[in-house]
Amino acid sequence: MKKLLLTLLAAMCAAAGAAGADRAPEIISVNTDRVSLILCVERDGRVHMRHFGGRIDDAAPLAAYSTHRRPDHGAGEEIYPAMGGRNFRLPALRATHADGDLNTELRYVSHETLPSADPDVERTVVRLADPVRPLEVELLFTAYRRENVIATRSRITNRQQGPVTLHAFYSSALSLHGYGSYLLTQLRGGWADEAQIEHLPLGHGTHSISTRKLVKATHSENPAFMLSLDTDRFDEEHGEVIAGALAWSGNYRIDFSVDEYDVLTILAGANPDASEYVLDAGRTLTTPEMIYTFSDCGAGGASRNLHDWARRYGIRGGDRGHVPTLLNSWEGAYFDFDEATLRGMIDDAAAMGLEMFVLDDGWFGNKYPRNHDRAGLGDWEVNRAKLPGGIDRIASYAHRQGLKFGIWIEPEMVNPQSELAERHPEWVVRAEGREAPLIRHQWLLDLSNPEVQDFVFGVFDRTLALSKKIDYIKWDANRHAESVGSAYLPADRQSNFWVDYAEGLYRVMERIRAKYPDVLIQACSSGGGRVDYGALKYFDEVWTSDDTEALSRSRIQYGTSLFYPAAVMGAHVSASPNHQSGNVIPLKFRFDMASAGRLGMELQPRQMSDSERAFARRAIASYKEFRDLVEEGDLYRIGSPYDPSGTFGTLYVSKDKRRAVFLAYCIRYRGHTPVPQFRLRGLDDETRYTVRELNVDRPRCWFDGETLTGAYLRHEGINPPLQRLYDSAVYILEAE
């Protein structure tokens, strides 16, 4: 009976394709307020992409669009090109069918608009199928009307009697034509050097953004990009820009291919390299979501679209209110602390006006005490020598001092020198018969294994049980995957590991969020290693970088801001000289830089002078005055840390344009060059704003305390005297 049903299904797909030869082309439109994605169902049943960009209300003429291309030159801009037929482009789907057939050709079956409880969200599904082999693909499009974001993913279902091997299974394919040039902007870097901006003109051929690290996947590259269209210049204010970001916390790949017809195709999704996914009969694989936006007012407009979408839909707790300012113990104590040390840090944090204390690494392990990074990881019981009163005594003390309390865990990894490694060597990711390589003296646990998923959930669950006063978890992950192998997965399913690990992490996080919806969780991952919208579905913020030096942070935070809102960027004031770079940087500059994200501190307050602690109290109080603007306002980047001038600024404007905060920086000595002039965009031209500088004892600028129109500030701007390295200023603008 099953064989008969599958045969009938294949026949129905074939019949649909044949009937399609007589149908008139049909337009499918996916729209937001200002953006359209337009598809066309051709007479032969193929679904082509016709437009992505500014909104088109009357898309009917696109049904008659012709490339004037000979039929034997390829299948055109299919919305989900498969390996087979006349598709000569990189395929979004490449499969080996159960009978060994290497070809797949997808034809239109149906489409519909799905109901949504949110009036600002519209979901469209386009169903495709192979007319010869029973393999189905659903393309899912979600349009966010107000945010001008369209997200897309694919759902691949195997209706065959045996397994299908998926060699490529991208989330989306986006084709662009009619543009003379494409300037790609991407993030690159490494540990402590994340989110560096790189611009690349795209020529013929293929360029990729990718990783195969699985964990800490966003250090060297990030699964996000901007495309400036018909220009070779990156511009904050002008021009057409497409931005994209993949919501996936595993291996990813984004391909940009320009063919001989100057058509650019963007393939985005899980990285297929050495990651063939064996899809059993009757099973469905749902790919990660790819988020797109379009702006006709430069890169700044694209960023603001993504930020608005993220705060409303893309970030766990995007509407939660403020993440507390905090003191983290790591750079202040490292592994060397006891109760007295922590109580002193808590007292100092409260005295400076901070709102939370976070106990970092080193609080656990008894047989193998966590006194260094070579032992104890995996043994999540409180170290009795360091903390004889347990975590609850410290957390309760923090609460009595008016602070929330947070604690560090790293549940995906294990030290060889641990009780966990002794009990469960089969849980370690390693290739059969090969030595498991160490990174930072630790191994990776196999999250494709449901038992390991239970353990990782249990780590979180038991940690929260240590005290009812734990408000925040810092979730770290300090190594990537290599020489992989799974004792859980069968021999013919080993390549499924790369997808199954990430999905295993998400299953754990789903359980955690079902039980602990209100606990704040940071994705640390060596700083900057898990900065993606897949993680942010479950985590409230990210640790932007382990590099806490303010000068380095100027570029790291700038690059991150292209795609991710300031509300998720943990930014800390650390010691001087800085522990990473050795640079000596004034305290004010350190505070002013960290105030462009979620402000925290990471040092030993007892090593600060009385005057420094007094300034810290002042700066923290000032931050609380404007942090709603940083977390919720529209971002306008005024210049960049890459500018030869050595000056730039960051402006956050409230949605009603009644308030704003401007943070300005000088990152090189300027000698006797002209005073920088910052023209402030995003304000209301007719509104009069009083400008007030924060954290100074006396006015330093002629405009401090003056009332200026938005038009004046846009056209003429302000000119603070930032001439020396580490000069900085913070200005509040308030409407009369």
Shape: globular
Which fold name fills CATH's third level, the topology of one domain?
Beta-galactosidase, Chain A, domain 5
Radius of gyration: 27 Å
Number of helices: 12
- Point out poorly predicted stretches: 1-20
Helix content: 10-25%
- How many DSSP E strands? 36
Mean of all residue-level pLDDT scores: 95
Terminal CA distance reads 77 Å
Q: Which structural class best describes the helix and strand composition?
A: alpha+beta
Characterise the protein shown here.
This protein is α+β, with helices and mostly antiparallel strands and 736 residues long. Among the domains are: 2-177 and 251-293, Beta-galactosidase, Chain A, domain 5, CATH 2.70.98.60; 636-735, Golgi alpha-mannosidase II (Immunoglobulin-like), CATH 2.60.40.1180. Helix content is 21%, strand content 29%. It is built from twelve helices and 36 strands. Strands 5, 6, 7, 8, 11, 12, 14, 15, 19 and 20 form a ten-stranded antiparallel beta sheet that branches. Strands 21-22-23-26-27-28-29-30 form an eight-stranded parallel β-barrel, surrounded by six helices. Strand 6 and strand 7 form a beta hairpin. Residues 1-20 have low confidence and may be disordered.
